[in-house]
TrEMBL record:
GO terms for molecular function: inorganic diphosphate phosphatase activity; metal ion binding; phosphatase activity. It catalyses: diphosphate + H2O = 2 phosphate + H(+). Transmembrane segments: none annotated. Belongs to the HAD-like hydrolase superfamily. Its cofactor is Mg(2+). Its EC number is 3.6.1.1. It comes from the Eukaryota. Phosphatase that hydrolyzes imidodiphosphate, 3-phosphohistidine and 6-phospholysine. Has broad substrate specificity and can also hydrolyze inorganic diphosphate, but with lower efficiency. It is found in: Cytoplasm; Nucleus. It comes from Nesospiza acunhae. Its main location: cytoplasm. This is Phospholysine phosphohistidine inorganic pyrophosphate phosphatase.
Length: 201
């Protein structure tokens, strides 16, 4: 449990591809379930994407879940020169996907930033398509390659390690996703452990 990890003196950082809510909302939900976690202990794709956007002077068209929009409040979104894609859930309509496609296809050098590339995830009512499926559709339609900001991107794990202040060989990633959690961490030089919960199959 997280309590035992903290009591042991080990450093802890949660790496999530959660893109349907802000980190604050995510932490509130975990705290309500009894987990003693702070926002600073969460590495998530949206803040990482904001850092990248500022770094490169990019102005995004957002195709994300409406609950995630506050993460981009400080980012200039006028006259977009890229598309940022997250797990938009009900916002993944044909109209919204087509709008993102038209923006990308109209750019001289299209830039598609995806907040993860998971194929599916598990909810209480079953498996659901994840952002990766929609990312692939836009990649195919525009003949481009998306830049992935969340797991399993190496840069994402490196930012979590930087937060912890430890080298990869001194860290272990625990997760249920063999590609995004285990594979991504191993690619970064970390050890990884797969748990048999969620979508481990």
């Amino acid at each position: 449990s997280l309590r035992r990890i903290k009591a042991s003196g080990l450093k802890l950082q949660l790496c999530t591809n959660e893109t349907q809510a802000t980190r604050e909302s995510f932490v509130r939900k975990l705290r309500a379930l009894g987990f003693d976690i702070s926002v600073a202990q969460v590495t998530a794709p949206a803040p990482a994407a904001c850092h990248l956007l500022r770094e490169r002077g990019l102005r995004p068209h957002l195709l994300v879940h409406h609950d995630l929009v506050p993460e981009f409040a400080e980012i200039d979104k006028t006259n977009p020169n890229c598309v940022v894609l997250g797990d938009a859930a009900e916002n993944f309509t044909y109209t919204n996907l087509n709008e993102a496609f038209r923006l990308l296809i109209g750019m001289e050098k299209p830039v598609l930033i995806s907040l993860g590339k998971g194929r599916y995830y598990k909810e209480t009512d079953g498996l659901k398509l994840d952002v990766g499926a929609y990312m692939k559709a836009l990649e195919y339609a525009c003949d481009i390659q998306a830049e992935v900001v969340g797991k399993p991107a190496k840069r994402f794990f490196e930012s979590a390690l930087a937060e912890l202040g430890v080298p990869p060989e001194q860290a272990i990633m625990i997760g249920d996703d063999i590609v995004n959690d285990v594979g991504g961490a191993q690619q970064c030089g970390m050890r990884a452990l797969q748990v048999r919960t969620g979508k481990f199959r």
